[in-house]
Amino acid sequence: MLYIVFAIMYLKKKEFKDFGKYTLTMVISGISSLLIFPYSIGHMFFGYRGQGVISNLTNIKLFINNIHDYLNKISRFDFNNLLYVFLVLIALALISIIIKKAIKKEKFEKPNSLIKIILIPSIFYFLIVSIASPWIELRYIMPICTLIFILVIYALYSLLQNLFSEKLSNIIISILLVMMLISPMIFKIEPEVMFSDKKDIVQSLKGDLNIPTIYMFNSNENRFLDDILLFSTVDNSYVAKDIEYKDENIQKIFEGKDISKGIVIFINPGQDYDNILETTRRALDLTGTHWIKRLNACDVYYMYK
């Protein structure tokens, strides 16, 4: 997308020589990257992310929901919950300029055309992430967070300068930035740290729940490794890959194991949870089941006598 923006700019200015040099540079870069990591083609177009893009193209409702969720992410972690305040101010300023222009026939300063170099690729990236990302997480949108911040502040400041003096525009922007600095204390905004919400289950599995543990693993789900480190902290664990849910299979796995304190069972998606839990309960003569937590790739249960 960035190449298209620069290509249009070069062609519009009739700088054909620079356009040729730029195109050649991009072609060489593309070929070099494929030589370094040729599997990137398969990852982008035939992996689960590439397939996710294709399947989500027709899911308009999911696409719109993802856009909304990512805007909330950007608002919280890029603008400290003030993004929508900035957008409302931009809308009000724009309406004021339109009214003022219609009444007084005044000419207003146009924004710098070079801002398109940031704007168009950022919008394109944002839409791609909204379609392709399998989860709504800050890490997917982080590469353009700074650019979005620059675009929003620049848009508001440019509009304010068409309505007020430079001094007053600076004061308004300064007040808004100060509000952003203190808003984390008001809204209790904390950095989004991956896996920080898993601290409690880590402590449990290292302590009271360090008991025989089984991972009922469906190999058609590809996020098994996301939770394998936590699973490996247990002293006595077993991965049951694609096994048939029968009493004798469960009994064979736990043969000779001390299950007097119960067991922990990990189950990843694509399986009949109720059937697995019921079969395990019956096979091991357990009486109760307690859901502990949803991890990245599975649900964790504690089953006891």
Low-confidence stretches: none
Q: Determine the mean pLDDT.
A: 87
Widest β-sheet, arrangement of strands: 2-1-3-5-4
Give a count of the beta strands, DSSP E runs of length 2 or more.
5
Global morphology: elongated
The rounded Rg comes to 27 Å
The first-to-last residue Cα distance is: 60 Å
Q: Order of helices and strands, N to C?
A: HHHHHHHHHHHEHEHEHEE
Biggest sheet, open or closed, and with what strands and sense? 5 strands, mixed
Kindly estimate the percentage of residues that lie in beta strands according to DSSP: 5-15%
Tally of separate helices: 14
**Helix-residue proportion:** 55-70%
Oligomer state equals single chain
Structural class by sheet pairing and helices: alpha/beta
- Return the domain count: 2
What does this structure look like?
- Helices cover 59% and strands 9% of the residues.
- The chain is built from 14 helices and 5 strands.
- The chain has helices spanning 2-12, 16-36, 40-45, 48-56, 60-78, 83-104, 116-132, 138-141, 145-161, 166-187, 199-206, 228-232, 247-253, 273-284, and strands at 213-217, 237-241, 263-267, 288-294, 299-304.
- Strands 2-1-3-5-4 form a 5-stranded mixed β-sheet, with helices on one face.
- It is elongated and about 85 Å long.
- It starts with a helix and ends with a strand.
- The mean pLDDT is 87.
